[in-house]
Design a protein that fits this description.
Two copies of one chain form a homodimer. With 589 residues, the first copy, chain A, is an alpha/beta fold. The first copy, chain A, is built from 19 helices and 25 strands.
Amino acid sequence: MSNDITAATNQVKKWLSNFNAAIERRDFNQAVNMFEDDCYWRDLVSFTWDIKTIEGQENIRLMLELTVSHIKPRQWQILGEVTSTNGITESWFTFETEVARGKGHIRLKNNKCWTLLTTMTELKGYEEKAGATRSQGVNHGAFKHRKTWLEQKNQEEAELGYSKQPYCLVLGGGQGGIVLGARLKRLEVPTIIIDKNQRPGDSWRKRYKSLCLHDPVWYDHLPYLPFPSHWPIFTPKDKIGDWLESYTKIMELNYWSSTQCTNAYFDQATKEWVVTVNRDGETVVLRPKQLVLATGMSGKPNIPKFPGADIFQGEQHHSSMHPGAEQYKGKKCVVVGSNNSAHDICAALWENDADVTMIQRSSTHVVNSDTVMKHLLGALYSESAVEAGITTDMADMIFASIPYKILPSFHIPIFEEIAKQDADFYQRLEKAGFLLNFGEDGSGLFMTYLRRGSGYYINVGASELIIEGKIQLKSGTNIDHIKENSVVLTDGTELPADLIVYATGYQSMNTWAAELISQEVADKVGKCWGLGSGTTKDPGPWEGELRNMWKPTLQEALWFHGGNLHQSRYYSQFLALQIKARCEGILTF
Amino acid sequence: MSNDITAATNQVKKWLSNFNAAIERRDFNQAVNMFEDDCYWRDLVSFTWDIKTIEGQENIRLMLELTVSHIKPRQWQILGEVTSTNGITESWFTFETEVARGKGHIRLKNNKCWTLLTTMTELKGYEEKAGATRSQGVNHGAFKHRKTWLEQKNQEEAELGYSKQPYCLVLGGGQGGIVLGARLKRLEVPTIIIDKNQRPGDSWRKRYKSLCLHDPVWYDHLPYLPFPSHWPIFTPKDKIGDWLESYTKIMELNYWSSTQCTNAYFDQATKEWVVTVNRDGETVVLRPKQLVLATGMSGKPNIPKFPGADIFQGEQHHSSMHPGAEQYKGKKCVVVGSNNSAHDICAALWENDADVTMIQRSSTHVVNSDTVMKHLLGALYSESAVEAGITTDMADMIFASIPYKILPSFHIPIFEEIAKQDADFYQRLEKAGFLLNFGEDGSGLFMTYLRRGSGYYINVGASELIIEGKIQLKSGTNIDHIKENSVVLTDGTELPADLIVYATGYQSMNTWAAELISQEVADKVGKCWGLGSGTTKDPGPWEGELRNMWKPTLQEALWFHGGNLHQSRYYSQFLALQIKARCEGILTF
């Protein structure tokens, strides 16, 4: 170990030991004094039983006062190698609480804590069985009338939801529901996942034909069963659908396909949800203790109402219903919107010899796929990261260790560099009339995604078609009204149209709560997603974390789960631990 | 690095460099002189395009003379850390030939080579794409009329076997066929796997109900997609069936289920096989260049013909057709045989309240499952091996590095220790009348498996039932004849019987060649499996490798593939490389 590393290690060791001593003797003045003035403590379930970033010394003091005496944190130990760069010392550590084990990350500046991440990794006594603790698979010996694995599985499938109630019900069996279901299975929480489609993976299969994941494979692993090393970088939609289907079977999830929730309410007297579902024609009433909405981070499709839509003679549909481009050869197609789906659909229409016009209503953040891979994800999620020994778990934790408040300050310089490097591309795009932005504060793709879940295009080829005029562009305008065979724009242009695609996004996740439960519950819970940044579509006040995601909401026993594959993977573990704790009667405050 | 390791490393480095120099200048005297008198060179495809152990200096000289000038071996480099224990220095190394890269293992004794293993890992220019060379998944950009992943997949499935011929046809889609299919897929060799069952995995699902793998999970991984870390130690049959089915889909194999081969012959003129198959009612004639029999390491069921079998009023079937024990409650059951299947079936019958008698015709090797795990597999295939950093690849190579000729000398002391440790168990078993052996030379389980593919029971509970008399035992006897409601043994005993199970094993693999191709081809190829050890069911002469397995046979373009999951995994890579080389027109002599 070099002298620098030894010094840094001693610095962290001393900080952890002093901090531990201070909170053990309840000396919160001393504890808080060990943080910088500008400080952030991000806690994922371990101290707060919530997902929270506590900002500033006074809030940290308050949190410590509220939690330490029953959480009983202890055993702070450095994990792995301490690093020190540009005056910031970074270290991993482990710790324990009364009921759980945890893993954390710390950044020290001037010997004080600048950022602290504490995450729960497992509940004591309820550890997932793996490796040396895996099950035997069969009991060696002779046992009268033993049940085989298949018989036990068939029995569980026959009983759960009928003679036995699931502890947890997950509405929605896309990636989010499946991954959460896998974690709950490993934690032995009786769970049913329901999904309206026939087969797991159909939520991907049913999207437009040309769709591929926009995120690269290293970012997309599911827990427990990583993609094999030959898996393509950008998974085509049907392939990810098949993977999800195999995964559901391999993880032995209780997955009810062809099942729709018609109604749900929380019975205050019994503290149970009463959920009516239609399972392939049969009505089943389920009474789970916990209900998770995993119906996608998007809510219901957002379809603008234009005058004349009812008299349009052609075909019109929301992007979520778009079947693919082949059948529109030679047709005049108008696509409203300028985010990922709009671009993908326009490109596929051009590839299939349609005449296509994109209506860009407002400015869009565009960034090249290669550039994202290189500048934004490469350090954590790439083949070179794998080669450098950065596992998916480590990458996820490093990613999680930067509080959202200061994340823009990390991303603004990256996007300044991107704007410079791809300047020629951006100039040509603007010359074609495209309205560009880099996020309101220049912080780019990921912040835009966190703030509003939309508003961007990761360029995989459509931007070049716009530059070359192959996708025709009408920007800074909107449909004013629709006629029998055309759309008339607000600038007066009339475009002949056989097809209108509304790539106009989705409403908030909690529109599902309104539809499936009640408007009252939806209103009580409030908006989902967004940080409260005060930017477009993300009104304040500042929340510091994604609203209502993966954590307790104002409706008892109701949870929201969603996001991309990375978020589904990482945050599902904290949601699963919260549900497991409740299942086992562990106090969660 | 300690001084010892430095010295050992220098010793290996010097050996490799001198050996390389000697064969570069074709000084085979010098090269051969670098081996011990008692020496073994095991080559898996890299020098000999065959699977061969060359024993002794003179045979090694002959092999070098025959191969070096066209194989052009070079670049011998130490890989990883050299170790030295009890006068044996061991090292991994890499090397190259004109057409391939390889990996090897060497043991030096008195500065000379005692054992050498050379294996081909990849063909130059035909490396499997993975990690940094994985495919993009989608071509970014815009392309007129591009085909999606699903369209390409559907097209391949529609064409292969009809308008396009597979280069390779694999008969049998159990673990062997599936694993080989996966390797050929990764090597881009157009391949069809056919199987008579409806679904991949059915060859396991259809076996007797209580069956679980007798080998532990660490020994059973399939290539490319290891079991997740919570996978049970002993996989139940239906679970391994489901895994194989998911694996087949994930690896995108061209798997024709519900398909049976009715006839195959090699067309000398076109150098093609002409294979007639019945695909779910449709007759299809396939013309592959290579034909692999992966119909199981066992041939057709071996059903002894006892006088009176035709007048028996009860039920009688071979163990391969045994449905499970439940329906035999209260019935009198006679099980002929005393290997794994016989024991498993007897135990399940007892568990389901049948009256069961085992007929042990000759002595059997029995070893406790826990003991096998601890003493035989533990060092290479166990959780502690995983924790010690021994990957499956490394374990397979270490296992492969011990030539079969000297393997008994490694195993005899292990089984002496086992006999001592489990002495009480063995005494009680013998006291119950059970006829025990440890292999003819005391070398135990694995040698017995290699020599005859049967003859043993890995005890998972049935031996205790025999000891306690719950499974009744008649040993050293056989059925003399069968009456309407009983069997009469050679010792005169008459046993009332409602059910007779013939757990009497299987014929040689090449019975499949006789049935599907011709007796002439089967005779030309000769016996499969066995080492030529001159022990029971393994007649000499000494072969040094498993006969006809995974290597060229006397019938051009006909291959045999099979064995347990470990062998299917490890040896399929060499079979796949041999087939790939032929597919690409690489000279293979």
